[in-house]
Amino acid sequence: MDLQLASFGDLDQISTIEKETNEYPWTPNNFKSSLDAGNCSIVLKDNKNILGYAFFSVIGTDSHLLNITVSKNYQGKGYGKKILQKVLFQSKVLGASIVFLEVRVSNHKAINFYEKFGFKRDAIRYNYYDGNPKEDALLMSKQGL
């Protein structure tokens, strides 16, 4: 297993994983735009196969986790933990002292995962996520990287 920066050449595999794991996936253009904007990215690879990824943005002392996903075939094996640990480490190296994220209020598995890493529940953003009906987002943060 190897953690490395995502490249434009990884976007096809990333988009495939995104579609298979998320009810409301980022589009290939969302990922391309994120890289174009200079956001940070990490992929976990086994040879040439991407098992998971994360996209995050660091501005000043704030890091914002934009997307983190592990392929369905590899969930429950600790790969999400490896990816998030790398995001937290890289955020700290880049000068962040706090990491923010949003998660669907119905995504209890993800909320529990983040809480194991010391993320706290901060607030609710009402009707934040698309869908029918729209869904609220739970805002979470982790301080003291």
Keywords, separated by commas or semicolons:
4 helices, globular, single chain, alpha+beta, Aminopeptidase, seven-stranded mixed β-sheet, 145 residues
How is this structure best described in words?
The structure is a single chain. The protein is of the alpha+beta class and 145 residues long. The chain has one domain (2-143): Gcn5-related N-acetyltransferase (GNAT) (Aminopeptidase, 3-Layer(aba) Sandwich), CATH 3.40.630.30. Helices cover 30% and strands 39% of the residues. It has helices at 11-21, 28-36, 79-93, 108-116; strands spanning 2-4, 40-46, 49-59, 62-70, 98-104, 120-129, 135-143. A 7-stranded mixed beta sheet has the order 1-2-3-4-5-7-6, with helices on both faces.
The number of helical elements comes to 4
Shape label: globular
pLDDT below 50 for ≥5 consecutive residues: which ranges? Answer: none
CATH architecture: 3-Layer(aba) Sandwich
Strand elements, count: 7
Largest sheet: 7 strands, mixed
The run of helices and strands is: EHHEEEHEHEE
Q: For the largest sheet, list the strands in their spatial order.
A: 1-2-3-4-5-7-6
Rg from alpha-carbon coordinates: 15 Å
The CATH homologous superfamily name equals Gcn5-related N-acetyltransferase (GNAT)
Mean pLDDT: 94
Q: What is the total number of structural domains? A: 1
Structural class assignment: alpha+beta
CATH fold node name: Aminopeptidase
CATH class annotation? Alpha Beta
Instruction: Give the helix proportion (percent range).
Output: 25-40%
User: How far is the first residue's CA from the last residue's CA?
Assistant: 24 Å
